[in-house]
């Protein structure tokens, strides 16, 4: 909380290569802060911080409207085409210590809605997040399902999609207390849709009692 009439939330983007992680960050910020394009290799090699302008009309407290600012830390993907797991984790921890000294509100685990989450992928992803965020990772993780437009084109509503989802995805969603959001990467998100997504994130943060996750930086 920066002042009595405004609020800042700190978000961490995590995900595999070409899941739309950086593009999702740009969508939430309504900016082009993060490099995002189709590539045969991992695009992001170091962490970068993006900040939104103050947004009104999204959150109120005690009958007063607050100005919301969103800070997003974009990260290298894991698995990465040129960095080891240890290198990615070290870079993320370094950036968290630099940019989010007061702590992290939520990590957004980005998965593609148009691709199945296989068992090995799920285990690898969970292990990576556990090692990065620690034993309370479930309380501070939200699943962001990108490319939701492709699922919609295939005739799946959100409810129908979840009814047909793999046991791996359903288990992951259950472990993070069903904190998930669908995001369309293709269309330009209008202001009202972005506000709806941000309100969902704020609701997750509120249900978590506005706790901040403090992460220790590993020297080296």
UniProtKB/TrEMBL annotation:
Pfam families: AIG1
InterPro entries: G_AIG1, GIMA/IAN/Toc, P-loop_NTPase
AIG1-type G domain ranges (all copies): 6-220
Gene3D superfamilies: P-loop containing nucleotide triphosphate hydrolases
A GO molecular-function annotation: GTP binding
Keywords on record: GTP-binding, Nucleotide-binding
Family stated for the protein in its record: Belongs to the TRAFAC class TrmE-Era-EngA-EngB-Septin-like GTPase superfamily. AIG1/Toc34/Toc159-like paraseptin GTPase family. IAN subfamily.
Protein name in UniProt: GTPase IMAP family member GIMD1
């Amino acid at each position: 909380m920066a002042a009595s009439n405004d609020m800042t939330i700190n978000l961490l983007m995590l995900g595999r290569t070409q899941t739309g992680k950086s593009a999702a960050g740009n969508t939430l910020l309504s900016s082009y802060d993060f490099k995002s394009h189709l590539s045969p290799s991992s695009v992001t090699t170091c962490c970068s911080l993006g900040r939104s302008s103050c947004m009104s009309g999204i959150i109120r407290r005690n009958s007063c409207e607050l100005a919301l600012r969103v800070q997003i830390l974009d990260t290298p993907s894991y698995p990465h085409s040129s960095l080891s797991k240890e290198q990615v984790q070290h870079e993320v921890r370094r950036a968290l210590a630099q940019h989010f000294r007061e702590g992290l509100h939520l990590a957004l685990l980005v998965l593609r809605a148009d691709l199945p989450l296989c068992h090995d992928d799920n285990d690898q992803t969970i292990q990576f997040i556990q090692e990065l965020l620690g034993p309370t990772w479930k309380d501070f993780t939200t699943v962001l399902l990108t490319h939701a437009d492709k699922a919609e084109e295939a005739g799946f509503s959100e409810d129908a999609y979840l009814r047909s989802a793999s046991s791996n995805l359903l288990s992951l969603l259950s472990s993070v207390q069903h904190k998930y959001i669908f995001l369309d990467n293709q269309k330009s998100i209008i202001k009202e849709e972005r506000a709806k997504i941000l309100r969902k994130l704020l609701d997750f943060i509120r249900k978590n009692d506005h706790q901040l996750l403090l992460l220790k930086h590993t020297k080296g």
